[in-house]
């Protein structure tokens, strides 16, 4: 019976139709994949993650420089905490102080910041952040340490701040033990400016043989989180830090590599020749014998000069064609970098490792998947005027990414969790045309398959001896079923770890 079915002329014609249909679908698919591969290299992403659910909302923390720079524009609704970076030592020569009882105007920037928050009708908390490198200036005696403690408490109380963030040096302070971890609300783990730390591992004979490194590689980001989890720190207390300031170095290698020797001496190049001369600043180096400098080139400048904002910063700005953009999955770094020949005669290159949407997405995905406490930004003023990067981070707070140029709503809510793999270090920029074509192909294939099954089933029923017989026995009905301590305290809220 079945042999006659599959050998009948109608079925032969239908089988031929199915065969040619599937062949056409395969050819269209191959052509489409080739087109997508040519237009969209696996180096960029434009679509954000889905917001986390209400129960999994995380925090965003932003640092601001107020003293000597003026009050920056802050997208208040993008942040749960703003940490005010504290001040240099006083001028009396007797030690470090952050409190000026004889000159209230010196702390006026903090009051201006609070007023800015009030005007924005934001609920963001403001903390006082004590920088770790101030420790070098602190006199080593009990009297001055007590002065520091008193000044800190007075500043918080007098200016109605919400707590304190202490930047604890992860390298220079590594010999000291934090005796009471339970008193810390959040541990802010900084994983950027990686070149500073990597180059310290060089033997003394190679102290000047610096190398370029990714600014904030994904593997370092993950390892830092896991190290703190392994010593028993609650995942909800861990804040992972990222930097919008980026790193800029001079290299002398003709190959475009993310990790290479930095041989350019720091004292001979005149940066006034460069367009970014007023946009970069030297990052404080831990090694006094270093022969090469590392600079910061903030995203707000870099993205405007080098990258094409109309293409979600995935390509180079046509006004600066000498730059080359790369995205490196090697060592699971998941970070982009830029390269530019600035001195053809001497073959000197600018190397920039930076944070963009592509690299942020993989870090956000990891943070959301592991339900950590949140993420922090080293300086909120380094974002561009449309707050592109901080906007992109809003899904960890349960909010959708706001439209360009506006910050997230403070009363939004999440509606789902990302299904992306936290292990992805390279994310593909999707092509809308490809998605549409893929959907059409899927529909065609589904219709062909449905038609084939329907035809075969119909032929089988008609050829059965008992065709037309109705079974009156009803099937039985089935039902398938499946079944912290709050405290009112502000002092010592955050601890930042480098």
TrEMBL record:
<dbReference type="InterPro" id="IPR011583">
    <property type="entry name" value="Chitinase_II/V-like_cat"/>
</dbReference>
<dbReference type="InterPro" id="IPR050314">
    <property type="entry name" value="Glycosyl_Hydrlase_18"/>
</dbReference>
<dbReference type="InterPro" id="IPR017853">
    <property type="entry name" value="GH"/>
</dbReference>
<feature type="region of interest" description="Disordered">
    <location>
        <begin position="400"/>
        <end position="423"/>
    </location>
</feature>
<dbReference type="GO" id="GO:0006032">
    <property type="term" value="P:chitin catabolic process"/>
</dbReference>
<dbReference type="GO" id="GO:0005576">
    <property type="term" value="C:extracellular region"/>
</dbReference>
<keyword id="KW-0812">Transmembrane</keyword>
<keyword id="KW-0472">Membrane</keyword>
<feature type="signal peptide">
    <location>
        <begin position="1"/>
        <end position="31"/>
    </location>
</feature>
<dbReference type="InterPro" id="IPR001223">
    <property type="entry name" value="Glyco_hydro18_cat"/>
</dbReference>
<feature type="transmembrane region" description="Helical">
    <location>
        <begin position="435"/>
        <end position="457"/>
    </location>
</feature>
<dbReference type="Pfam" id="PF00704">
    <property type="entry name" value="Glyco_hydro_18"/>
</dbReference>
<dbReference type="GO" id="GO:0004568">
    <property type="term" value="F:chitinase activity"/>
</dbReference>
<feature type="domain" description="GH18">
    <location>
        <begin position="58"/>
        <end position="400"/>
    </location>
</feature>
<dbReference type="GO" id="GO:0005975">
    <property type="term" value="P:carbohydrate metabolic process"/>
</dbReference>
<dbReference type="GO" id="GO:0008061">
    <property type="term" value="F:chitin binding"/>
</dbReference>
<protein>
    <submittedName>
        <fullName>9459_t:CDS:1</fullName>
    </submittedName>
</protein>
<keyword id="KW-0732">Signal</keyword>
<keyword id="KW-1133">Transmembrane helix</keyword>
<feature type="compositionally biased region" description="Low complexity">
    <location>
        <begin position="403"/>
        <end position="421"/>
    </location>
</feature>
């Amino acid at each position: 019976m079945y042999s006659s079915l599959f050998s009948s002329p109608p079925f032969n014609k239908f089988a031929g139709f199915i065969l040619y249909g599937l062949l056409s679908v395969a050819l269209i698919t191959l052509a489409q994949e080739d087109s997508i591969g040519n237009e969209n290299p696996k180096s960029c992403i434009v679509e954000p993650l889905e917001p986390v659910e209400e129960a999994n909302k995380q925090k965003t923390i932003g640092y601001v420089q107020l003293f000597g720079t003026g009050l920056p524009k802050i997208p208040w609704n993008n942040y749960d905490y703003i940490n005010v970076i504290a001040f240099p030592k006083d001028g009396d020569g007797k030690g470090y102080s952050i409190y000026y009882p004889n000159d209230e105007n010196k702390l006026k920037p903090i009051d201006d910041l609070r007023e800015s928050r009030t005007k924005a009708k934001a609920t963001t908390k403001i903390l006082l952040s004590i920088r770790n490198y101030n420790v070098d200036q602190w006199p080593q005696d009990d009297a001055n340490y007590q002065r520091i403690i008193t000044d800190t408490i007075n500043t918080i109380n007098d200016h109605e701040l919400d707590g304190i963030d202490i930047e604890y040096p992860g390298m220079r302070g590594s010999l000291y033990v934090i005796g009471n971890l339970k008193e810390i609300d959040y541990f802010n783990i900084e994983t950027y400016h990686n070149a500073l730390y990597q180059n310290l591992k060089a033997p003394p004979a190679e102290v000047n043989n610096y190398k370029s490194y990714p600014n904030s590689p994904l593997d370092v980001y993950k390892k830092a989180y896991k190290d703190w989890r392994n010593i028993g720190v609650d995942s909800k207390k861990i804040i992972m830090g990222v930097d919008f300031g980026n790193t800029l170095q001079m290299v002398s290698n003709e190959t475009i590599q993310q990790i290479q020797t930095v041989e350019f001496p720091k004292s001979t190049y005149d940066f006034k020749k460069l367009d970014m001369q007023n946009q970069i600043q030297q990052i404080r180096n831990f090694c006094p014998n270093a022969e090469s400098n590392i600079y910061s080139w903030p995203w707000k400048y870099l993205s405007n000069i080098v990258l094409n904002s109309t293409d979600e910063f995935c390509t180079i700005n046509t006004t600066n064609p000498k730059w080359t953009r790369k995205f490196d999955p090697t060592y699971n770094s998941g970070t982009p970098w830029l390269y530019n020949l600035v001195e053809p005669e001497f073959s000197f290159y600018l190397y920039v490792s930076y944070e963009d949407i592509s690299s942020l997405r993989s870090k956000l995905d990891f943070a959301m998947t592991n339900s950590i406490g949140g993420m922090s930004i080293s300086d909120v003023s380094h974002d561009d005027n449309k707050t592109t990067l901080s906007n992109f981070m809003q899904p960890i707070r349960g909010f959708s990414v706001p439209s360009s140029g506006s910050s997230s709503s403070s009363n939004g809510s999440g509606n789902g969790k990302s299904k992306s793999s936290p292990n992805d270090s390279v994310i593909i920029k999707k092509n809308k045309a490809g998605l549409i074509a893929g959907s059409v192909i899927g529909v065609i294939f589904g219709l062909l398959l449905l038609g084939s099954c329907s035809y075969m089933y119909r032929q089988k029923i008609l050829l059965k001896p008992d065709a037309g017989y109705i079974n009156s026995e009803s099937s039985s009905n089935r039902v398938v079923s499946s079944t912290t301590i709050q405290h009112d305290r502000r002092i010592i809220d955050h601890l930042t770890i480098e």
